[in-house]
Fold each of these.
Amino acid sequence: MRFTKALLFTLGCFFGLSLQAQDIHFSLFNYSPLTLNPAFTGAYEGSFRIGGIYRDQWASRLPNQFVTPSFFVDAPVLAIGKGDWIGVGGMTYQDKVGAGNLRNNSFQFSAAYHKALGKGGKTTLTLGVQGGQSQRKFDPTSPELIYEDELDLGGGLGSGNGVDRNRVGDQASYFDLNAGLLLRSQVDEGMDFNVGFALQHLLTPEYNLITANNTDNELPMRISAHGQLNADIGEKWMVSPTILFLNLNPATQFAVQGWGGYYLKPERDIILKAGLGYRVGSSGEVLLGIDYKAFKVAASYDINFSELGAVTYNRGGFEIAATYIARIYKKPTVKPVILCPKL
């Protein structure tokens, strides 16, 4: 049992420290727009938007499971010309990864220019940029970590006398820069779509905690491409297929999701949603959600189909997310009118 726990700890450490491709990712990626593409900043109708998402992965198998909370706020702040506008926002996340209390913290600001295209401005092309400070923290002295020389060939734990845990730095900071493009279009009253492309970690910053000036320890550029279609089917139903492609060398991820929704009322202000998703070669996804006027809430659960399924018993990650779009209307200024009784 002790060796099994050690193996699980080592597995958690391996995924947290050795895989450069372990970047933050969400199954409910459409509910975390600013971590997906900075061009989503201010890409909606309303006064301001606020939201958050929480992911908990392998909680039943690792004592120090992967935990990722993230929050964002954005707003369209400046109208330009006929139909163009600028949006600004900010987002933060903390990614706690396995044993050793490894944490990736980031706070980033974003801005986007939205250009209306065509008659009526029903199609919008957006360029977004995002930048901020990120920090990686790690506790090398944590007793939860199992180093190589602490495992003996007999299937147990060795003495570990050769490990100098104090040789490793406990944090590293770097500036991160992202950019993205987004095309949105309102096809008709019951159909709209968006497609986007984003580049993250444009500066390929060095993030390693042990050595400096080593290109092997640079965070590789992340390439994202995504698309979503929202379409009504009759008066009561709607569908929303989505796709997502991610590449963070050497890892590649392709995910597809199919959402379906049911309008509870003729006013269409309440939608019950459910769906299924598949992350190719990795996991399946069960999706649930509800839209109530300006509020959107969703939850998902991943079923692990990868090589780690034997260790995790096919249990994956749980997510819950919520967004709210506020609409603040200015009261009209009414000039007093004095009626003349002689007229």
Amino acid sequence: MIGVCTAIISGIIGSALGITAGYFGGRIDAVITFIITTRLSMPIVLVALAVVALVGGSLHAVILVLGFLLWDRYAVVMRSATQQARNMDYVSAARAIGCPTWRVVLSEIFPNVVNNLIVIATFEVAHAILLEASLSFLGLGVQPPDPSWGLMIAEGKEFLLFDPWVITIPGIALSILVLAVNMLGDGIRDVSAPENRN
């Protein structure tokens, strides 16, 4: 749940910024690119730790914090894809017949860049799952009674010498989930690659 909700929030923010920067260019692109660069220069784990420590470690707080921190990759990819799409003939034709900007973006550009969004979203789900587990392991993420593999690993480390399975099972489950989501992202990327389209 955390990974999917985080991917949705960050996807909306990053896609809106990336498409806006890529479509309009000029000063708008420069400002948004500066914002993206500033966000990329911040160490995400430290920022997440600081913000979650301030607002508390509830489930909703973790989702919102991660959602507002993981939008940068969406913005970079969608900006690049939009810059390529805006110069296509179908976009020029839509402009020539007088379509408003919002319609050009929603009906001509967005459907042609949405594959990039789906691929990035799968990788960001895995990224969010790992970040949430890290925060919970440090005691700043999801709190009981809400379940978290990071919290299970943190609580089981006291029994590492006598019952190592207490942390081994949630660790393996976390690894398998992240690997599965990453493999799903690889598969979607391969299927949606231009050379594989018929």
Amino acid sequence: MALSRDELERLLADLDAAMPAMMAQYPDPADLNSAFAGVADEITDNTAAADDAWVFEQIDGILKRHGLWQPRQEDRPPDE
């Protein structure tokens, strides 16, 4: 069952608040990415289709706020 917008907002706020501790616990970028993806996947797996785009924007915002955002492969310009 999909989570409500209020539940999604709470989980995303919890993830954002946990980032400093997560970054300290996983200093290796690959380990941090894996840990972050695990939590983010739990959120996105329970997101209604109508909220998908909004949730991904929020996740990108969390990554940007913590200096970790990288464009998704499909958002990158093609190699020249």
